């Protein structure tokens, strides 16, 4: 777990204008910067980046956040990856609790990673240059209907014939980094002795594979004539893991947001051809089955994922594996569908024969996950026979057990129950599903904390806007906030603790990021603060100091009344009241002090 102190320090060091400016064209607009929102379509800029708040906010769609939040939303990175990316740019090393790697070894690993990245970049540039000099490769791409514009967008290249062409790019052709990057192969004899080294990719159209930061991490090479393998991929390397990466995701990010869904295909050429025909929201797995990591990456980009498979047996098997990868991540606010083309077609061939409208109709008619799951369970079983219905339930059991409890799972359970002449409760009990819904009464929804109003809301707004002012909230002030109610007081106490933990230099961005990780309770007020002009901290400090003083004064008056009642009762009962009188005098002295302070700054009230 990354310490919160590191997150705060990181946000203090990075400049959100630089971070966002790498992806969005920004122009100065008064104290802030403006640009077209990358999260929704717009023609006039409503996306604002505040260098003082270190926060972005869109007045159109309401998107807002810190530098970390921007990378997560825009690039689809996970939280840890976003933090590491920002830290690397400012020369910070992310501390990890379980990190037992010695500093020297970690430095060596980072140097190796940089060497591999540099090798991949040089190779990508070389292949691009070679494509411009290869009439046969250009003719092949044109024959597939691709324009130079699309080829440039995906940085397509060509690996010419010959065994050691990369020698012209890398004078140190025997460098270890070339093998580790998967660019060359070392041939050894039966006794393990090195014989020769040669280029991995030869006479192939080259498809650079980029990570979410746009860095080339691997290649896919397609042969132009007959031969095997038709596609040759980079091996697993320190930079590249097939089960974690998706071809075209970097290029497709904006198109995915514009379309509202991502289309997952099975090949590089499908992605490029679909982009050529107006479906730039397509990505592809890299010669491997869809994994849960793939699904997580996709669902960070969009709420709707549509898998496209060939209609043959291999396509059906691939679809089944994709279904199994999706089930742990299914939720009621996500949509997952499966598109099956005729057996003789892939997306590339289908769109060329039936056009963009025909392919759009196929997408529209894609099968929902629930329907596909039930169809997989039914299989070839005879549902008119008890044995067939039992086998369908047997096949469905591991699929439903992989799903988290949700309304969609309940709907699938009901569908299976109807199909197999059972009840939903029987299915849930038989399958031992976690947190069954149909078999037991639903728990009442958890009560939500009532929203803060009036003075409490104003104090919260001031503390979130300027966390450094939380230093004014001492224990007496927090006790005085008890008049808002016990739950409200505890909620305010937790906020003050979060803000005070940031220290006297705490910032809005650091606290907003911290609060976002705790849940959605503060999303509304953070959005309001991000959208509003930043108030002067000195004015807010005077207001908060005066408000805290007033709260303390009201609390002291309540305590004075309580002590007075106790003194009256003691006198009536002819009991000693010395201790009570001493307490009364202390409270009156404190009241006098607060009144004098209040009088001194009443002009600010």
From TrEMBL:
Annotated PROSITE patterns: TOPRIM (PS50880)
Protein known as: DNA primase
Entry cofactors: Zn(2+)
UniProt GO MF annotations: DNA binding; DNA-directed RNA polymerase activity; zinc ion binding
Organism of provenance: Pseudoduganella buxea
Quaternary organization: Monomer. Interacts with DnaB.
Assigned GO CC terms: cytoplasm; DNA-directed RNA polymerase complex; primosome complex
EC numbers: 2.7.7.101
Cofactor: binding comment: Binds 1 zinc ion per monomer.
């Amino acid at each position: 777990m990354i310490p919160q102190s590191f997150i705060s320090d990181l946000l203090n060091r990075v400049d959100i204008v630089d971070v966002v400016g790498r992806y969005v064209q920004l122009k100065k607009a008064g104290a802030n910067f403006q640009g077209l929102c990358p999260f929704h379509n717009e023609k006039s800029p409503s996306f604002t980046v505040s260098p003082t708040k270190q926060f972005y906010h869109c007045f159109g769609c309401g998107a807002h956040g810190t530098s970390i939040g921007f990378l997560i939303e825009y690039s689809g990175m996970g939280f840890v990856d976003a933090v590491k990316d920002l830290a690397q740019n400012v020369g910070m090393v992310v501390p990890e609790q379980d990190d037992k790697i010695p500093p020297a070894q970690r430095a060596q690993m980072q140097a190796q990673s940089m060497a591999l990245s540099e090798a991949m970049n040089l190779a990508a540039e070389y292949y691009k240059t070679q494509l411009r000099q290869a009439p046969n490769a250009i003719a092949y791409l044109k024959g597939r209907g691709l324009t130079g514009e699309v080829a440039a967008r995906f940085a397509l290249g060509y690996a010419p014939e010959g065994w050691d062409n990369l020698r012209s790019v890398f004078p140190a052709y025997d460098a270890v980094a070339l093998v580790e990057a998967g660019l060359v192969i070392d041939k050894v004899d039966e006794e393990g002795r090195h014989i020769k080294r040669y280029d991995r990719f030869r006479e192939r159209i080259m498809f650079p594979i980029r990570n979410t930061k746009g860095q080339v991490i691997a290649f896919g090479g397609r042969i132009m004539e007959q031969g095997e393998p038709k596609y040759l991929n980079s091996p697993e390397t320190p930079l590249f893991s097939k089960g974690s990466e998706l071809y075209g995701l970097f290029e497709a990010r904006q198109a995915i947001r514009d379309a509202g869904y991502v289309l997952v295909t099975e090949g590089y050429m499908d992605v490029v051809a679909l982009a050529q025909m107006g479906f730039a929201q397509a990505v592809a797995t890299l010669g491997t089955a869809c994994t849960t990591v793939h699904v997580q990456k996709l669902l960070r980009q969009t709420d709707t994922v549509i898998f496209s498979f060939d209609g043959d047996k291999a396509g059906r098997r691939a679809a089944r594996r994709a279904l199994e990868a999706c089930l742990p991540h299914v939720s009621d606010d996500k949509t997952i569908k499966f598109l099956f083309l005729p057996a003789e077609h892939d997306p590339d061939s289908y769109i060329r024969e039936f056009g963009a409208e025909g392919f759009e109709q196929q997408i529209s008619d894609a099968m929902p996950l629930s329907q596909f799951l039930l169809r997989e369970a039914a299989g070839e079983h005879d549902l008119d026979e008890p044995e067939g219905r039992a086998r369908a339930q047997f096949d469905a059991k591991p699929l439903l057990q992989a799903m988290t409890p949700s309304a969609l799972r309940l709907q699938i359970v009901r569908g299976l129950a109807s199909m197999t002449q059972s009840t939903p409760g029987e299915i849930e009990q038989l399958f031992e599903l976690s947190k069954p819904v149909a078999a037991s009464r639903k728990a009442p929804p958890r009560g939500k904390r009532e929203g803060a109003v009036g003075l409490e809301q104003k104090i919260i707004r001031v503390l979130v806007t300027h966390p450094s002012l939380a230093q004014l909230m001492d224990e007496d002030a927090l006790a005085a906030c008890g008049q808002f109610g016990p739950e409200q007081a505890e909620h305010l106490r937790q906020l003050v603790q979060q803000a005070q933990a940031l220290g006297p230099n705490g910032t809005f961005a650091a606290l907003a990021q911290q609060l976002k990780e705790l849940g959605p309770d503060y999303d509304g007020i953070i959005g309001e603060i991000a959208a509003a002009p930043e108030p002067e901290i000195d004015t807010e400090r005077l207001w908060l100091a005066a408000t805290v003083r007033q709260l303390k004064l009201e609390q002291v008056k309540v305590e004075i009344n309580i002590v007075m009642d106790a003194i009256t009762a003691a006198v009536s009962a002819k009991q000693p009241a010395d201790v009570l009188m001493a307490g009364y005098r202390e409270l009156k002295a404190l009241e006098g002090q607060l009144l004098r302070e209040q009088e001194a700054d009443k002009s600010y009230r």
